[in-house]
Structure formats: structure tokens, C-alpha cells
Amino acid sequence: MSTTIISPITQNVIDEAYSYSTFNSIVEKLFEREEVTDQNNTESNLNYTKLNLQRTSRWDKRGKILPEVEAIVQGIERPQNWLVITEGWCGDSAQILPFINKMAELNPLVELKVILRNEYPEIMDAFLTDGISRSIPKVIVLDTETLEVLGDWGPRPEETQKTYLAEKVNPEIGGKEAAKNLHIWYAKDKGITSQLEFAEILK
After folding, report:
1. Tell me: the pLDDT tens digits for 62-80?
2. pLDDT band at 6 (very low <50, low <70, confident <90, very high)
3. Rounded distance, CA 159 to CA 148, Å?
4. Residue 72 contacts by C-beta under 8 Å, 6 or more apart in sequence?
5. Is residue 182 one of the residues assigned to a domain?
6. For the chain, how are helix, strand and coil distributed in percent, rounded to 5?
7. Total domains present in the chain
8. Is residue 135 part of a domain?
9. Residue 5: pLDDT above 70?
10. CA distances from 39 to 46, 89, 95, 175 (A)
């Protein structure tokens, strides 16, 4: 899928971006010092980070890639970078990024890189959700040689996003319960919807 986004992503950004394992290691080491990736070290962000480390570990061990998604990824014939914008406290990222990483590992032409949202505001602002929201995670698919943006996806599967936003503003549900319902859905879905939606961009 092509896009008309004018990208501020340079080779220097790619070179400085973290690998998946390095990103997770940074999040873990910061948490041990009671810190989070953007240094907004509130109790809630520390709690989110703790949960995310558990979720990431669980999906790294148990997550499975669908055969039809595996075939799409293995069919990629030109080198690609998948650049993820996120933060360590982002709950959606911990539910999605392990599957994106597993997909990237299926093809040696694909390299997954991670940048922190608050360190690259100019990139985040080029990939806003609905043109207004700095929602994360965002996965940007780039041609490795030209850095052309081939597509982007996130922060959640489309229908899941609609449900979450509707519940969040519903006075009978509210943000806290909406977030709880969201993560229950992620646990039941096991990454299937995220895989399928992201794979559509790769076709």
C-alpha cells in the first residue's frame, strides 16, 4: 500500500534505532531503577511498564504466526525496514510488538527497528492517528534502499480501535474499564487480528 506521507525518516534515524531485543533490555533496566523510557516516572507508568514486561515475555514465548501471514512475509523480495514508534509503558505495544517481531524474523530481508515516540516528535507527527493523535505503537514499512514509506499501521486493529474509543467516552463504561476490556480482548485474540491487518499492508 503506497502513501502520500512526506517522511522525516532518514538513514541516521534507522542507524540509531534500537533492535527489538535492545529496546526490551532498555525498558527492563530502566524499570529496575524505577524509571520509564520517557522519564515520566509516575506510579501508573511504572505499573504499566511492569505489566508490559510480563506481556512481552509471554507473547515472545507463546505467540504464533499464522501460516497465511508467514507466506506473505516470506514473499517480500526487496529489503525492508519496519520502524516502530513506541514507549516502554505503552500497553498496546506489548500486545502487538512481539508479533511484529516474530513476523520480521521470518524473512532476512526484513529488519525491525524501534524508536521512542518522545525522542522523535517530528516522526510521530508525520504519522498521527486520524491526523490528531500521537497514539502508539505505529509500525512504518520502509524500502531499505530508498527509505520510501510503503505503508504504516497502528496503533490498534481497526475494529478494536473503534470499540475502545466508543467505550472510553461512554459514561457507563469509562476509560479504565475500556482499557481492561481492551486487554482482555488482546489475550483472547492472541495476536491474530493484528497480524492479519498488518500483513495486508505488506501485500
Report:
1. 999 999 999 999 999 999 9
2. low
3. 28
4. 199, 202, 203
5. no
6. 55, 15, 30
7. 1
8. yes
9. no
10. 10, 11, 22, 23
> Per-residue pLDDT for 93 more than 90?
yes
Contact between residue 113 and residue 17 where contact means Cβ atoms under 8 Å apart: yes
Tell me the backbone φ, ψ of residue 5, rounded to 5 degrees: -60, 130
Q: Please check whether residue 41 is in contact with residue 27, taking contact to mean a CB–CB distance below 8 angstroms.
A: no
Helix (H/G/I), strand (E/B), else coil: 150: strand
Distance CA 65, CA 80 (A): 19
**pLDDT at 155 exceeding the cut of 70:** yes
- CATH code at position 55: 3.40.30.10
**How many angstroms separate the CA atoms of 20 and 84, rounded?**
9
29 Cβ contact partners less than 8 Å away, ≥ 6 residues apart: none
The predicted-structure confidence for 122-145, as pLDDT tens digits, reads as follows 999 999 998 999 999 999 999 999
In 3D space, the residue among 57, 14, 48 whose CA is nearest the CA of residue 30 turns out to be 48
**CB-CB neighbours of 50 under 10 Å:** 12
pLDDT for residue 3: 46
The domain of 133 spans 11-156+192-202
- Rounded CA-CA distance 161/65 in Å is 22
Count the Cβ atoms, other than its own, within 10 Å of residue 128: 12
Distance from the Cα of residue 57 to its chain's centroid: 15
Report the DSSP pairing between strands 110-116 and 138-143. Answer: unpaired
